[in-house]
Amino acid sequence: MDAQKLAAAIREQAQWCQRLGSPLYHSLLERMATDVESSGVVWKVLQPFSGDPGRSLLPLRFLAGLHRLALEGCLPDLARCYPSAGGSANPEAAFAALLNALEHNAGQVRDNLPPGVQTNEVSRCAALLPGFLEIGRSTGLPLRLLEIGCSAGLNLRWDHYRYDTSRGPLGDPNSPVVFDSPFVGDPPANVPVAVVERRGCDLNPIDPTTGEGRLTLLSFVWPDQTARFQLLAKAIEMARIVPSTLDRANAVEWLEAQLARPRNGAATVVFHSIVLLYLSNGDRQRVEQLLARAGEQATKDAPLAWLSMEPGEDQTDVRLTLWPSGERKRIATAGYHGRPVSLL
Q1: 200: exposed, middle or buried (C-beta count within 10 Å: 0-12, 13-18, 19+)?
Q2: pLDDT of 244-302, one tens digit each?
Q3: pTM above 0.70, yes or no
Q4: Cβ(232)–Cβ(217) below 8 Å
Q5: What secondary structure letter does DSSP report for 145?
Q6: Number of H-type helices and E-type strands within the chain
Q7: Residues with Cβ within 8 Å of residue 18, at least 6 apart in sequence
Q8: Which strands sit side by side in the sheet containing 183-184, from one edge to the other?
Q9: Are 47 and 18 in contact (CB under 8 A)?
Q10: Strand partners, 143
């Protein structure tokens, strides 16, 4: 990728940050793109990585690496411009601090560039909640959760979070992880749901119970979005209480192995949120084929569900397939970070 193409990719990400409510990152990315076009210091640091696949999201990985250094106290000038690190959002001063870091600590910045984006956005649980509740209602069985692209597995704990709605709370009413008014219009009906297994896979799973894992997760949150930052911190603490199993594995191979062992007396739920764009076309097709094949073997005592939250036209589409019937429905739309959620 040459400088012009990289600048275009950075500007595309800048527009997403503007759309999703991060004026600080929008400004930084626009300034970065201009620097890359003029062969400045940003280009010099990023050039060795410019051949990375577009789906690896180099601009976000770069900013996450810098955010981590700010949170660790290694870049105090940048930290003063990041609300997540106790500073005040100041795009102009932040970019000046960014350039200074690249000019004097380029090696450290390169060494901290993460290999992939690892955003475990817990607010997406609000978008997935209607699907989980519908599966519980339709089957009358406890759920066996299988998440592909699970990152740190925080969304596997969705039933231990509280969702405040116009009709009262859903989920755990005593949870410190609270989603305030996530639904536009009527919320889903409350259904008691038990979870008997929580398991996920990721190419690079993060253990949220360690200091290293916690810092990695927080670094991917955009630093001027303090509500997301604080919510994530609380979900990380919940992960210390509610265990789950995370496997380092390719989604296709892992899913094939998990679906080969159906579980009687439980509904197996394969779910994911904003994951398919990171898979190759071949792997996406293989995932669909594996689910369809397993669905053919599903029974009333061992049903299979496929719940997904993936990009739609303007927002994301939440879709649910429940076998043995095999009918796939779009049940809701939601923002890319999970909220607001509109039931269909």
Answers
A1: buried
A2: 999 999 999 999 999 998 889 999 999 999 999 889 999 999 999 999 999 999 999 99
A3: yes
A4: yes
A5: E
A6: 11, 12
A7: 26
A8: 183-184, 341-343, 327-334, 316-323, 304-311, 267-273, 143-148, 195-202, 245-248
A9: no
A10: 195, 267
